[in-house]
Structure formats: structure tokens, C-alpha cells
């Protein structure tokens, strides 16, 4: 297997739908999931690049592994549940610090999942993605607790935390998404936007990496020593 050229990591609280988003994108389906233990990855060929996408466990007990998974990451997808405000706060409180090990020019996407649960009219969003009664939020119609503007405000906090200038990174409007792994809404858009943006990061990482081969032609001749039988 060829070594992946770059790494993308999904982070976020348990139950927000990280595994479901990845399965929707990679396998084009919405199967029943079990809470992730440790982490798992998929390989995606994007243009001529091999990208590994890591699914991590949101459970508190696996929290320590998060920074290990983020090591050298070219992009991190921070995921919350739009119907559960606490899951956005958790990104700031528990997950952002895990990205300290990521690449210096790591990209960030902020993703609010499960929008199908708070669609205004049943049937909106297509593919039969109506409202699931009895889900989090408790409201009868439209339990959405987090607006896209809240996610964009969080994106700006990320830039502040990373001491990045807004002018040097993609705009919040480009990097904040609302998705449904259930209906597929915006799932391709999310991953493919991130893949496209990650390619220049991969190229920069390659340029900065120590060379893997020695160029004999440009290598200096070995220094002559006085020792040995022919001296
Ligand atoms: N209605 C709806 N349910 C979803 C969506 N995405 C995930 N779910 C459900 O939410 C639950 C949790 O989904 P997972 O994908 O396992 O969540 P996770 O973030 O991987 O959770 P951990 O592995 O524990 O960190 C499952 O019952 C999913 O079927 C969505 O977009 N809409
Ligand atoms: Mg999972």
C-alpha cells in the first residue's frame, strides 16, 4: 500500500455523526453505527493523491488519543450536532486543543450535522429525510439549536487560537457546513471542498519534508582521509 500523501481527521463529541458522515461519503449509505472505539481510517484517492481520512471516537475515555490522530494532519473537520448546542461548545472546550499536533498550515472545517432533524417542512432536504420524532432538542417542529452564524463565530475563534490571520486562510463562509449524513445533504460538498483545499497543503508538506533520496550527482565528493592502506 502506498503511504498516504495527506491526512484529514474528524473530531467531535460522541453521537454527532462523524462515522455516519464518513460512511455516507465513502459507501454512499446510512447504516446503523456503533459508537467508535479508538479510531479507524479510510483511504481516498483524490486526483493523484492518496488521502487518509481518520474517524475518531468522541467518547471521553478515548479523548487522549485525539492529539495522536491529529499529528501532522493537513485538515481537521470539527463536527457538532445542530440540535445540540453543547456539542459545539465541546469543540471549543475539549477538541480544539487536540489539534495542536496538526500541521502548522492545517485547514479547519466546522460541520453541523443532523440538519434533517430540524428541517422546517417534512420532506425538505430530499431523499425522504424528514424529521425524526423524539430526537434530541425536544421541540415539536424544528429543534435546531445552533445556527450557521454560531459555527462561523467558532471558526473565527479557531483562527484566533491558532494565531492565524483571516486574510491567509479560507473564509468562514467556505469552511462552515450544515450536513445530514441521513439524507446526504452537503456531504459530498463538505468532503470534496476539503480535499480540493488540502492538495496545496500536501504539496507544501512535501516541499518541506526532508528528501527521501540522495542525489549522487550533486553530493559533495567524500573527504580524503590519510588513513587506510593506500595513504
Ligand atoms: N437523523 C440523523 N441521525 C444521524 C445523522 N448522523 C448520524 N445520525 C445518528 O446519530 C447516531 C450517532 O452517529 P455516529 O455516526 O455513530 O456518531 P459518532 O460521532 O461517530 O459517535 P462516536 O463514534 O461515539 O464518537 C446514530 O444513531 C446515527 O444513525 C444525521 O445526519 N441525521
Ligand atoms: Mg463514530
From TrEMBL:
<keyword id="KW-0653">Protein transport</keyword>
<dbReference type="Pfam" id="PF00071">
    <property type="entry name" value="Ras"/>
</dbReference>
<dbReference type="GO" id="GO:0005525">
    <property type="term" value="F:GTP binding"/>
</dbReference>
<keyword id="KW-0333">Golgi apparatus</keyword>
<feature type="region of interest" description="Disordered">
    <location>
        <begin position="119"/>
        <end position="144"/>
    </location>
</feature>
<keyword id="KW-0342">GTP-binding</keyword>
<dbReference type="GO" id="GO:0071346">
    <property type="term" value="P:cellular response to type II interferon"/>
</dbReference>
<keyword id="KW-0378">Hydrolase</keyword>
<keyword id="KW-0472">Membrane</keyword>
<dbReference type="GO" id="GO:0030670">
    <property type="term" value="C:phagocytic vesicle membrane"/>
</dbReference>
<keyword id="KW-0460">Magnesium</keyword>
<protein>
    <recommendedName>
        <fullName>Ras-related protein Rab-20</fullName>
        <ecNumber>3.6.5.2</ecNumber>
    </recommendedName>
</protein>
<keyword id="KW-0813">Transport</keyword>
<comment type="similarity">
    <text>Belongs to the small GTPase superfamily. Rab family.</text>
</comment>
<dbReference type="GO" id="GO:0015031">
    <property type="term" value="P:protein transport"/>
</dbReference>
<keyword id="KW-0547">Nucleotide-binding</keyword>
<dbReference type="GO" id="GO:0046872">
    <property type="term" value="F:metal ion binding"/>
</dbReference>
<keyword id="KW-0449">Lipoprotein</keyword>
<feature type="compositionally biased region" description="Gly residues">
    <location>
        <begin position="123"/>
        <end position="142"/>
    </location>
</feature>
<keyword id="KW-0968">Cytoplasmic vesicle</keyword>
<dbReference type="InterPro" id="IPR001806">
    <property type="entry name" value="Small_GTPase"/>
</dbReference>
<dbReference type="InterPro" id="IPR041836">
    <property type="entry name" value="Rab20"/>
</dbReference>
<dbReference type="GO" id="GO:0003925">
    <property type="term" value="F:G protein activity"/>
</dbReference>
<dbReference type="GO" id="GO:0090385">
    <property type="term" value="P:phagosome-lysosome fusion"/>
</dbReference>
<keyword id="KW-0479">Metal-binding</keyword>
<keyword id="KW-0636">Prenylation</keyword>
<dbReference type="InterPro" id="IPR005225">
    <property type="entry name" value="Small_GTP-bd"/>
</dbReference>
<dbReference type="GO" id="GO:0090383">
    <property type="term" value="P:phagosome acidification"/>
</dbReference>
<dbReference type="InterPro" id="IPR027417">
    <property type="entry name" value="P-loop_NTPase"/>
</dbReference>
<dbReference type="GO" id="GO:0005794">
    <property type="term" value="C:Golgi apparatus"/>
</dbReference>
Amino acid at each position: 500500500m502506498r503511504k498516504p500523501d495527506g491526512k484529514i481527521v474528524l473530531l467531535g463529541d460522541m453521537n454527532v455523526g462523524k462515522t455516519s458522515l464518513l460512511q455516507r461519503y465513502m459507501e454512499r449509505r446510512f447504516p446503523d453505527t456503533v459508537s467508535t472505539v479508538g479510531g479507524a481510517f479510510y483511504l481516498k484517492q483524490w486526483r493523484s493523491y492518496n488521502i487518509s481520512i481518520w474517524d475518531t471516537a468522541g467518547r471521553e475515555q478515548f479523548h487522549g488519543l485525539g492529539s495522536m490522530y491529529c499529528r501532522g494532519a493537513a485538515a481537521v473537520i470539527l463536527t457538532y450536532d445542530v440540535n445540540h448546542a453543547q456539542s459545539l461548545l465541546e469543540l471549543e472546550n475539549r477538541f480544539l486543543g487536540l489539534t495542536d499536533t496538526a500541521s502548522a498550515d492545517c485547514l479547519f472545517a466546522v460541520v453541523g450535522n443532523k440538519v434533517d432533524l430540524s428541517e422546517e417542512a417534512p420532506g425538505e432536504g430530499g431523499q425522504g429525510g424528514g424529521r425524526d420524532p423524539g430526537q434530541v432538542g425536544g421541540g415539536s417542529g424544528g429543534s435546531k439549536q445552533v445556527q450557521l452564524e454560531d459555527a462561523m463565530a467558532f471558526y473565527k475563534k479557531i483562527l484566533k487560537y491558532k494565531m492565524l490571520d483571516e486574510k491567509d486562510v479560507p473564509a468562514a463562509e467556505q469552511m462552515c457546513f450544515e450536513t445530514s449524513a441521513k439524507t446526504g445533504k452537503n456531504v459530498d460538498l463538505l468532503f470534496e471542498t476539503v480535499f480540493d483545499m488540502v492538495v496545496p497543503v500536501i504539496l507544501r508538506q512535501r516541499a518541506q519534508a526532508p528528501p527521501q533520496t540522495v542525489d549522487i550527482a550533486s553530493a559533495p565528493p567524500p573527504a580524503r582521509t590519510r588513513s587506510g592502506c593506500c595513504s
